[in-house]
């Protein structure tokens, strides 16, 4: 299992969204803010879905990592691909399917 951190750019097929994505510990990581951009939903809604994911199916400690972000004083929580995919299903995002395919491909490289 690799522990090196890598930043890879995810772009939608129509090039309307480009997100820097952290790849570390054999998973992809996004913040709630990045998920709101990806899924085209406001951050408050994304956070509600994240909390529901943790209360219903996943363990928060195993799927959250705080990382430093330039311009932000406090470390920001980032979430694993399992959380990202679960949130994508909940917001019924077509981009979620595109992201899941991209993430699976990026993790194999």
From TrEMBL:
It comes from the Bacteria. Residues 4-109 form the Bro-N domain. This is Bro-N domain-containing protein.
